[in-house]
Amino acid sequence: MTDHHDAKHEQLDRSRTDPEGTVLTTQQGVRVAHTDDSLRAGDRGPTLLEDFHAREKITHFDHERIPERVVHARGAGAYGYFEAYDDSLSRYTTAEFLTSGERIPVFVRFSTVAGSRGSADTVRDVRGFATKFYTRQGNYDLVGNNMPVFFIQDGVKFPDFVHAVKPEPPNEIPQAQSAHDTFWDFVATQPETTHMVLWLMSDRALPRSYRMMQGFGVHTFRLVDAEGRGTFVKFHWTPVLGTHSLVWDECQKIAGKDPDFNRRDLWDSIEAGQFPEWELGVQLVDEADEHAFDFDLLDATKLIPEERVPVRPVGRLVLDRNPDNFFAETEQIAFHTANLVPGIDFTNDPLLQARNFSYLDTQLIRLGGPNFAQLPVNRPIAEVSTNQRDGHGQQEIHKGRTSYFRNTLGGGCPAIAEGGTFRHHTEAVSGHKIRARSASFLDHYRQARLFWNSMSPVEREHIVAAFRFELGKVTAKEVRARTVERLNHVDHELAAQVATGVGVEAPAAVAGYHDDRSPALSQLGRPGGSP
Ligand code: HEM
């Protein structure tokens, strides 16, 4: 079963070049005899404008850098394959890569979120886990993180959130090393961040290795079967090596000694033939059960408790080949939540809806125009035939006189396929046009409490220590106090312990909150609701 897996590499081989054994030329193929001295008038005279080789060489160098990703700038990636265990998901989806059992080529990029391209790997941060599946039905991107929830519920807040996370504009000093006032200011004013902030203060934010990290699609997506019937789905990646973290002291030391710790580990393990592996799991929820939960399935700050809907293993992912060129592959890969194949669709999650706009938009500037899907790492193995023409970086020579639909003249225009096309899931939608949030999105503490309650004593110690370290550096006392207030809605003991470490008074216990662990748990754990 290697043919499909190799299809992407066969395609990439046509773009891979090896300068070994060649002779130096200009971009025009003219052989160059001498590249150490520029052409000048006299051996101590000025350089001549007519030195086309020197000008071309320097001009290209001047343009070697492109904008780094606005978030997730630092990363590492590798090729591999995904194979579904069996065809059991064909009851739910027409996506062949989830049911065919063939080896589907993939590229996975892991990343940190906040740091710039040259930042250290072992910082306290969320990690990106983005997978591009090169399927026969087109490219499918699962652009996830190593935590199952997110900081905000609506993507319109994402620019505010990222501005708060990134270094402050006056000095651009990464905030992990100094007072992270703006991040905690955002947290303190936005209760919806509470659940994710607990994950961020936990050891999950310090993965020992990318090979030992879970991944999550985060949003509720939809599988769609041949009859157009939808089933809600959450995607989970589980590492075969188990989930392991560093401790904070190790992270700080490693950041100094080897800032590429996670990147090196991924590279070295693949070079050594110890191929990292994950199992893909899905949680499935019947559309009829959309409202059977005490949270909203469209709310990305919530997970579906596994006691309620078990994770069902469906396939495995293996990374078995390092890239040949970091820039061409890991840097130029362009993931997009809207890269779907037939059989998978969105939901109305307002965070997802914003992402569906944002990725293509940012890539238009990051990758310099509308033709970046033609770059080798982004090119589908499925046949591509559009009426799109021209633009910066166009690599194709389209023949024929027509590039519009519908034309009666023929010559150059693709036809509409009879079958195998993408069909948007049919969903009834009605309502008033309003700028508001559903009341079903407003419980910000119950799942945060569930997370805290699920921690072992040592994990709790680490969380408290992380809050004390991070929040303790915040210069504004009101921000520290307001954050502790929020934690008090999660657990009084947690709030009290953090308070003493960050120089604010411990708040009084919130009635009805810190003592209601068992009802909250049993409510979330009630059975039923999944197919
Ligand atoms: C990049 C995940 C929310 C905008 C990324 C990457 C990942 C990711 C993994 C890096 C992709 C790569 O390796 O190239 C997530 C997850 C989110 C989330 C799991 C929430 C569930 C958002 C939101 C927005 C956004 C709400 C905007 C409204 C971006 C942008 C990039 C990015 C602009 C850079 C893409 C590029 O330059 O190619 N995200 N993200 N993300 N994300 Fe998100």
TrEMBL record:
First-to-last residue of the parent protein present: 1 to 531 of 699
EC primary class: oxidoreductase
Protein name: Catalase
Family membership noted in the UniProt record: Belongs to the catalase family. HPII subfamily.
GO MF annotation, one: catalase activity
Taxonomic placement: Bacteria, Bacillati, Actinomycetota, Actinomycetes, Pseudonocardiales
Keywords assigned by UniProt, alphabetized: Heme, Hydrogen peroxide, Iron, Metal-binding, Oxidoreductase, Peroxidase
Annotated region (Disordered), positions in chain: 1-45
Catalytic activity: 2 H2O2 = O2 + 2 H2O
Catalase core domain sequence ranges: 25-413
Cofactor(s), by name: heme
Entry keyword Transferase: no
Protein function: Decomposes hydrogen peroxide into water and oxygen; serves to protect cells from the toxic effects of hydrogen peroxide.
EC number: 1.11.1.6
Bias type Basic and acidic residues, positions: 1-19, 33-43
Highest taxon, organism lineage: Bacteria
Coiled coil: none
